[in-house]
Amino acid sequence: CDVLVFLRAVRIPDLQPRPTMSLTVKAYLERPGAQTTPPEHEIRRFAIDPSVSSSYDYLSRKVAQVFPCLSEPGNFQLFWKDGEGDLVSFSSDEELLEALGFVSDGIFRIYVKAPGSGSSQAT
User: Fold this and answer.
1) Does the N-terminal or the C-terminal CB of the chain have fewer CB atoms within 10 Å?
2) pLDDT average per 10 residues of sequence, the chain (123 residues)
């Protein structure tokens, strides 16, 4: 008895995780002693790997790295702007996660205030 067998090749999808896009951060540094209205800012853009995007310590170290005038991570405050336009201070992973929930265009905008850079409007 002759048996005819048909084999069909099926591609098995890769089970390795696909690379995800990094988080783009746009950081505005309010320069200490700036007397202009609005204050003069230094602006830097950088990317953060998704695996560390919710780490406040990592973000704080990265900010200190991209702004050479900031000597160390604990020497400044970080803020984000909420839907009402208020600057909201953040200093923990939990607060950073809340701030990331407000990113709508793929760019996380943070505002960096060094000591002596004026009053803070944190909520």
Assistant:
1) N
2) 56 52 91 60 92 95 90 84 95 96 92 72 47
